[in-house]
Every structure is written in structure tokens, then in C-alpha cells.
Amino acid sequence: MGKKLSIFDAGFLLMETRETPMHIGMLQLYGLPEDAADDYMEQIYRRMVEVEGICRPFNQKLHSRVPGRLDATWITDDNFDIDYHVRHSALPRPGRVRELLALVSRVHAQRLDPSRPLWESYLIEGLEGNRFAVYNKMHHSMMDGAGGMNLLQSRMATTPDEDFPPPWSSEWNTRLPQKRKKKVPAVGLVKSLRNMQRGTSQFVDLMRQPKESNIKTIYQAPKTVFNHRVTGARRFAAQSWSLDRIKAAAEKHQGTVNDIFLAMCGGAMRRYLLSLDKLPHDPLVAQVPVALRSAAEAGDGGNAITAVQVSLGTHLHDPLERLEAIKDSMNGVKGRLRSMEKAEIDIFTMISNLPLSVGQMTGISGRINPLFNLVISNVPGPKQPLYMGDAKMLASYPVSLVMHGYALNITVFSYCDSLEFGIIACRETLPRIQRMLDYLEESLVELEG
Question: Which residues are catalytic?
Fold first, then answer.
């Protein structure tokens, strides 16, 4: 008997169309060892595909008996083809980062085959600076972004001398301690109704917040150029920022790294919309995912997140006033989550996400007022360098998804002493998104001054 998808996980299957593929990805850059042999890349590829077996969740595919996949379950793929899932590519000359990002933009726009396990990995050689790249993508129904990153990077070495198999190798079945199945306590009818009532009450109370408040909820966002229908084409931009710079700015303004990150995004969005002469009078509202699962639980699969709406203060010219508005907004929603039990958060998440799912499935998203303007995520990552074999990982950039009505997504991973920004957008809806990288830098400089 296969593992049944949760309602939340199945929602990503129901929302998927040709224009809105529901997978997420990660682009990793590696340095070639100084003594690398001429066939080093071929050796890496052989190591990735020559495994004796495949472990969960990488060997799981979808099975459903009814249209719409409302009864979808994960089952083992008995005809798994490793050569289909792991691919060897090379960049066209001169092998600049520009060519790499263009390749990732094209590959990320392509849907995963629903008849196979929903993931792919690309080994990409030919990158200038004696480097190569690995781009991984997996369906959001299979795992959320934080879980996927934690799973892949927890199966990487912390020294060049360690011999770790690829993340999908069945060797991990014996390398990792076997988890005992958690006993899920039975929840009585009275308690279930109480959780439903409390989760619903939290949502209704949040909806009553005045629009002028910094504490935001769905349907309080102005319609912008980000909030139109999308095509299947994508454009990806990426860049790293020093974590020390961001921490120094956070200390200067009695905030957190996440506060400064959101303020960088708020300042960049203000600049971008001003450059198009399309800045609304009301502040942009970002949907910010919040992880509900620890890194140790990454291999459990599925999605364990909720989402809150945060004001970006884009109506404010002064960067410090904008930062204070963001801090006030984030503290308000975080305080609300802290006051709720896990079961209440589950109800709250289901209710607040239902309009998003319905909008995508019915085709009305991008044609009516948006629930929010864009998605912005901050995923904590490893603080020590990681290795694939003896190749050191230099950077790791998130590649997320966009939907009808929400044509822009900004996600960051932290890695060692950097914040790695990944910006994904609909190529046809939003022009020149690479300029956002300059606007992010200008917004950080403002906060450092």
C-alpha cells in the first residue's frame, strides 16, 4: 500500500499546468580540484549513476485511480531508469554564468514526467573559472524547499576525504539510523472541533486587521505588474551577498538577518516598480513561508510549512521607516503563530491557502485582485563547507516556482558566510529582472549607511 499524499501536497498536483509547473530546484556551483584528471567530469557522472539501488523518496512515483489525482499515493517505481533522472550537460562557450543561468531558466521551465519519480539532476560542465554546476529539481508535492535542501545537503560530505554516495543511493538505507514510526495520538471529535474553531478564529481575527496596519493578511495587496497571468517561459537570476554585511546592518538597526533580507527585497521592489513607473500607493505584501519541520526531519517528505503575509513598506521613501514597518509586520504574524498549537496552525494554513489553490485550479488567478504580490523565502542552510567527492561546493542558489497571478519569487539559502539569492520570474510578464540584483545591493547599502 502506497503512502497517501496529504491534501496540501496533492494541491500542488491539482494546481499544475503547462504554464505553471510545480517543481522547485537548487543550483550548486563547485570548484574543480587542482589535480583533477582530464576525465574528472565523466568520473563524477559515473559516480552519480552507478548506484546499486535507489532509496526513498527518489524511487517513489505517483499512482492514482481517479482523474484529478485526489486519491494519489506514492508507490515504488519498479522500472526506475537512473539514466533518465541524472543527465550530463555542457555549457556553450564561453561558459559564463550568463550561459549557466540561461540553461537553468530553460530546464526549469520544463515539466517533470508524471509517470516517473518527480525529480531530475543535471551535471553541467564547462563553467568558466575552473568550476562546474549541479542543478537539481523536484516536485513540490514530493517535498518543500527547506526539506529538499536539507535532504540533499545532509547527504554531502563536510571534508574532501569523506566518501558519501549520491543522495538517491540505496546505501543511505543502511547509513542512516532507521526512524521509528511516530505514533500519532488519536484526536477525539471534541478536540478536533476545538482545533478547527481556534484555527478558523485566528484566521478571521487576522482578516479583521485594518488595511492601514502593518500586520497583513490575504487580499490586502495592491494589484501590480507581478500579479498577471504567466506563460511557461522562465528567467532566473542569482547572486551571493556577504552574511557579515547583513548581520552588521541587522545589529545596527536592532533587527534580525531576516529583517534586513526583507528590507533589501522591499527596497529592490520599490526601485524596480519605480523604473517601470508602476509603483502602487499601497505597500506590497509578500507571502513568506515558515518551516514547521526541523532539519533532522528532512527525509520525511511532503510539505511542513505555513505562510504569513508581510508588508514590504514599498510606499515609504525612507529606508529606515520601511525597515521598521517590515519588522512590525513580521513580529505581528510571528507572535500569532507562537500563540497557536500545531493543529491550529494546520487549520489556519488550510483556510488561508484554499483561495490560492482554487484560483489556480479555476483559472481566475491573475484576473482578480491578488492574495499577495510575490513570494519571498529565507531557508537556513549549512554553516560549514560541503563537498561532493573532493569537489568543494562554492555556492547554492534556490530556484523556486511562479504561478498565475504571482509572476515573481525571491528565495535565499544561507551557506557558510553568504546569503545566496535566487530570483525566478515569468520571462514574458516581467522584463529585465536581472536589474533586481543591482537594486538589492543599493537597498543594502542604504541600510549600511
Answer: 140
Count other C-beta atoms under 10 Å from residue 73's C-beta. Answer: 17
CATH 3.30.70.260 fits 3-175, yes or no: no
Dump the DSSP string for 174-236: HHSPPPPPPP-----HHHHHHHHHHHHHHHHHHHTS-TTSSB--TT-SPP-TTSS---S-EEE
Query: According to the model, what pLDDT value does residue 424 have?
Result: 98
Q: Per the structure block, which three cell numbers stand in for 361?
A: 485550479
CA distance 268 to 440: 5
Backbone angles phi and psi of 246, in degrees to 5? -70, -40
> How many Cβ atoms sit within 10 Å of the Cβ of residue 56?
17
Instruction: Report how far residue 412's alpha carbon sits from residue 434's, in angstroms, rounded to the nearest whole number.
Output: 16
pLDDT of residue 67: 61
What residue segments make up the domains of the chain, in order of their start?
3-175, 190-384+395-448
Task: Write the CATH number of the domain with boundaries 190-384+395-448.
Answer: 3.30.559.30
- Grid cell, residue 87, equals 543527465
> Are the CB atoms for 101 and 238 separated by under 8 Å?
yes
Residue 85 has pLDDT above 90, yes or no: yes
Task: Give the residue among 369, 349, 350 at the shortest CA–CA distance from 359.
Answer: 369
Q: Give the pLDDT confidence of 284-311 residue by residue, as tens digits.
A: 999 998 866 444 444 445 445 788 899 9
Same fold, 3-175 and 190-384+395-448: yes
User: What whole-number distance in Å separates Cα of residue 88 and Cα of residue 386?
Assistant: 21
pLDDT digit string, tens, across residues 43-79: 999 999 999 999 999 999 999 877 656 688 999 999 9
**In what helix (H) or strand (E) does residue 439 lie, and over which residues does it extend?**
helix 435-448
